[in-house]
Amino acid sequence: QVQLVESGGGLVQAGGSLRLSCAASGSIFSNKAMGWYRQAPGKQREMVARISSSGNTNYADSVKGRFTISRDNAKNTVYLQMNSLQFEDTAVYYCAQYNVAWTENPRYWGQGTQVTVSS
Fold first, then answer.
1. Between vectors from CA 83 to CA 108 and to CA 100, what angle results, nearest 5°?
2. How many CA atoms lie within 13 A of 101 on its CB side?
3. Each residue's pLDDT tens digit, 10-41
4. H or E stretch covering 2
5. Residue 38 near residue 92 (C-beta atoms within 8 A)
6. Which 3 state secondary structure label does DSSP give 64?
7. Cα–Cα nearest to 47, from 66, 65, 62
8. Strands 91-97 and 77-82
9. Each residue's pLDDT tens digit, 62-100
10. Measured distance CA(94)–CA(114) in Å, rounded
11. Pair 48, 102: CB distance under 8 Å
12. 3-state secondary structure at position 41
């Protein structure tokens, strides 16, 4: 079975940084596009960043220039480096794995990790 386990969330002041990690198991990780989504209170889940199996990336406009997604296939891990955090970034962040490419919705999800940015 596929498991995605996030870590690295927490409480940070506005302007600070966090790095989220997602450890994947139970799949051929190197062949899968991976993504980070988030859901804030009262809002729908939204895509934050995606990375293809070849390393191409795609970001939501709200995080461009501040967040960086990367992957380490040797460790079966995807990361989200979050800089210049804003109060509006407060949300539960979910790691997601696609079937192959990100042209469809993710197939698997992690349990989520809370990121809280204080103003």
1. 25
2. 3
3. 999 999 999 999 999 998 899 999 999 999 99
4. none
5. yes
6. coil
7. 62
8. unpaired
9. 999 999 999 999 999 999 999 999 999 999 999 999 998
10. 9
11. no
12. coil
